[in-house]
Amino acid sequence: MIKFINLMLLILSFFTTMAQELKIDISYKYIYANHWDKIVQTYNFSRPFNSNNQPLLMNGFNSSVSRIFKPNNNISHGLNVSYSYFRSSAEDQNFTNNLNLHFLNLGYIFHYQNQEKSKAFYADFILAITSSGLFRNLNGASFEYDNKKSIALSIGSEVDIKFGYSLQKSNNQYLSPFIVIGYIPYFYSPNTETVINQTKGLVEKNWTTILISQIGVAYHFR
Amino acid sequence: MERRDFIKQSTFFSIGGLLIPSLFLSSCRKELLLEDFQYTGKVLIIGAGAAGLYAGYILKSKGIDFQILEASANYGGRIGKLSGFAKYPLDLGAQWLHGKNSIVGELVSQSGAKITLDNSDEKYWFKNKIVSSLPKDINTIFTRETNLPDISFKDFAIQEGFGNDYNNIVEGIAGDSGAAASRISAYWKIKEEENWISGDDDFKFEETYFDLIDSQIASKVQDNIKLNTIVKKINYTESSIVITDSNNNTYSGDKVIVTVPITILKSNAIEFIPSLSLDKTSAFSKIGMDAGMKVFLKFNNKFFDQNIIGGSTSASYSDESIGKQQDDNVLLAFIMGKQAEYLTSLGNEEDIKNALLQELDSMYNGQASASFISYHVQNWTTNPFIKGAYSYSTIGMGDARQISAQSINKKIYFAGEAMNFNGHHQTVHGAIETGYKEVINILNDIKK
Q: Model pTM?
């Protein structure tokens, strides 16, 4: 993971020399992963001995950094790296079960902003490779069996559409609220059921589709 | 556009853009939950083993009417407890928690039950000597990473160069799977365990497995269990299913979960009306379940090793004090397959005990008979409602478990360790998984 982040930073710093606009944003993120829902629901259904249900993995936050080249054109493009975090926690008397889901996403942005009409509105179309790691914590410690951590890694491709409105703060600085609608048609996640429900092949298939929506604010400067 | 207008519009679009899909998706989520789902029908469960008890526990938690019909005088199935024989309680049936990554592992954490990793030493009875290691490592040939042929363990071991000297060692390895080495398939055993994810470490309970199941599951459904009820007939011709027991009492329900051991289904001890399909009965016949017994031998001193593999009377002996708080000199003879068939054929428990003592005497220079105090035989083979140990993978087995586990006409459902085709057959947690899975299947079928 650290190697991957370093590589991304290296790529970004390379493009910095020719970059025109840097954008940093933070947002609330909502995901709907139907198969993962089924796993969590099966987990809850099958464990009446837990007095509290495990919440679905659905609410999280996202933070991303992007670099747009030639942003003064109507259509420009750039790179985007983002990180999201989701948590599901259920507490019982002797048993606290936490699911921590981390997403890392590397994408390419096609940025549209009409420089003559409605200059403040912009739309981004983002194609990305996305990966995730789902970790389980039991009673505050990483859940391990046979001295192995319980982890589910997943990978897929994502398409996002982002709409925002830029408010100029100063000559080079802008603030823009935005919304995002995204879709991951195939997210390969073979061990998710193993981490959550401790079974394999009992609930369903080893992949899921994910629908995404986000609302947040971006800070960008040229 | 004025800033105020912008704020109005962007707030409207943002909230709308986000909430409309979120609300739609949230309604889809509720649909899957089965939480608000009310079912007013009655579910009959046949068998009060781990699968039946757990299915009942789930139904009770959802407020669904059910009754468990158990043939024997006790609940628990192949899980039982022997108190008073030693300073600590003994497991008559299922004993080891096979890996912590399972629903039972969670139940252990939740309940605070104490378990200990069983990392006891293994020794072998090889060429009439007790040795710490074998000239050739046989354990590695039956690994999950290897693509094995669909032949028996015994034949595969011979093919790999483990000849007659290793016969009883191979018998001990097969015995872990509840089978005779000549009957269990090397290929299907590994194939079926591809989905095994609960972990390879074995744990022992400070109390017993039965205590956990009793306190955490059975106690919740005890009022719904009818003991000494031997089901003879299941008539599912009409919309209401009628079950008849050996005393001609009848029980009506809308759904039935059959959790009896595979030996009972294979022996046609229960008549289904209409008859089960040929596919179904043929699938049952492909699931193996051999004879199995546990014999506890108590001595006045600990002359024996923690584990001894390779005896010709019992291929596996183990020290029962492992994982217990108090020490006592109890040795368990864990006997499966042909060895269990032979000992059963002796006809009485005294002869079984004598045969085992004779073997232990030859291993330990007569110390067994000299320090022997008492014994207890738990022969699962002669139990008329069990008739064996646990299910195993036979040669040419294919998808027999999947076919066996399929429901019939959305009325009859099958659960139990033998019906687990997700890698956890032969285990208590595997049986439990099938128990709750069939309740989910029932509710999903009703919803449709």
A: 0.91
